[in-house]
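Question:
When you can, review this sequence-structure pair and walk me through the tokens.
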Amino acid sequence: MLDVFVLRTTDNSEFIDAIIDSGTRCRVIDVETPTITEEVIIRTAKQSLTKFFYIVRHNSKIDLDFSFAPNALDTNYVHVYRDDDSVRIYPREMCKKYPARYTDDQLAFGNMPMKLIDTGEAILPNYPIVFMSYDEEYADANFIKLQERFPRIQRVHGVKGIVTAHQCAARLAAKTNAAMFFVVDADADVVSTFDFSYVPQVYDMHSMHVWHSKNPVNNLEYGYGGIKLFPTQIVIDLPHGTGIDFSTTAIGSVKVIAEISNYTRFNTTEFSAWRAGFRESVKLCRSAMSGDVTAQHTLDHWCTVATDALFSESARAGAISGRQYTQHHIGDIAALSLINDYDWLLSEFNNQQYLPK
């Protein structure tokens, strides 16, 4: 039998006494309100001698015999009854490590992973989805299309600076106390199988997660242009001028999920295709010059392969220009960081000596 803890207040003492009188072995914790706070989690987890333990918050309509025990592998979930969350079963070790994860506040904001006792169905947080747009030609249409599938989606539009735009998105997520948030680029054509339901393990919640996308101009499949999942507070706390490649260097820890989340349809104008090739080439060239063989192969592909897709040659020309620019300015962080300044990129594009016709 699992350990049982009951929260006793002046309002539910008769109910608690009835549990005790039934012969159930339980430990009473006197509280002012039957709220499961971080302090309650820490206290119960430290006292528990079983892998899981019950907490009874207040009067329950369930006929309790405390005989249910979760699957031994379900150590990340709080188990609750479908029609009554006053009785819950907590995983001891996870509560010891991450007590703040399992409070009533986290439950209220949808951030606590749960399973229903009668079905085993998981109830997981719905992280906010933020659509990030600047000047993309089909941004409005793409946003409306996604909004029809996911009404909770929000939008950040026209914010200058990659870091600043992502911090605006993070602050939207923070309004709901969400621990993480998804970012969708405005040129992303999200595949029908991607449903934004992914929830990382607790130990991965400080990492940026990135899914693969399909590149229409050269058929590459990797993280470029893919949907991303960011840790909210870490993004909010980033200093200005953070890194050249914000997505893969600013967060510090990156987890790549090799599943296609979208097609990255950046090739809607000559400039948008050139800009994409230029920016990605700078990032890849820096890594390649540091000895990254995979980055070198990917860079070579950008610079040599063009398909019959719209403005494919413009993307290739941008990649070639980005490679030349990086080789000339390697070591000059200020110069390389200009790839995050879209006004500068437009000026650079207009100054090119050659552009595909």
Remarks:
- The chain has a mean pLDDT of 89.
- DSSP finds 13 helices and 15 strands in the chain.
